[in-house]
Amino acid sequence: MSTIQGSAIQGSAIQGSAIQGKVVVITGAGSGIGRALALGIARRGGILALSDVDERSLADTAALAKAIGTDVHTTRLDVSDRAAVEAHATDVQARFGRVHQLYNNAGIAGGGSTILDADWSIYDRVLAVNLWGVLHGTRAFLPHLVASGDGHVINISSLNGLLAQPELGPYCTSKFAVRGFTETLRVEMRQAGHPVQVTVVHPGGVRTNIANAALADARRRGEQITDEYRERIRFYNDRLLRLSPHQAADRIVRGVEAGHPRILVGADAKIADVIARLLPRSYPGLLGCLFSRLAATP
User: Fold this and answer.
1) 259, part of any domain
2) Which of 98, 117, 133, 154 would be 79's cystine partner, CB 3.0–4.6 Å?
3) Residue among 143, 140, 67, 62 nearest 104 (CA)
């Protein structure tokens, strides 16, 4: 499976890229958008420092990137572990002598319950990875990015960092927070005159394993899985997660090369942005009605 996915997105090398020769750090690189980012950057001549909590998937990504012809350094990493992330930053700097770009991509889903019913453990887990992972990575690598003279922080938020959805409280909370943190960082970098660009990315529905992983995680924790939740996962997989990781990563990297401070990935993300801007008062009610209808539809 991994080799097939990788071969489909390797393609030929891209010459003259602004990323060529730069050291690029990517968390959550074992699958999905993270793997696609790694291979897209490898094709552009970037040097990779990859991490993931899943060592086997990470090794698969590294093998695919090395086959393209780039230098790859891998680390098993839990981004919620601050000390481990700081050690990773020190290790990458020591290995390559410089760091130019950081993609804080690692993330997990967290939903299936309303805010009234959700267990605190779900918030703890989702915020630890999706929010604290971004904070840990940014704080640990930022001095090295400044020192490079040509740094760039890229934080992956979500469509749900623009528009809230019911029964995704922990996830939406984390992704809105990533957006706010990233925009604050951008202001501070400009105010201080540091040579670091800052980009927030809002992907829409991308065909990754995040929805299925959330269902599997709920089962491992012994939670009751309702028919409504199963149907929602099926609906996400069949109807909403339409963009391939390769397409999403290509749009992200192109936006980073162009220096865009904000990247909307997919038509659904662009629509969500418009809705949130034009209908800030009424969209929650409209979404509530929409998802109630979806839940009632076989």
Assistant:
1) yes
2) 133
3) 140
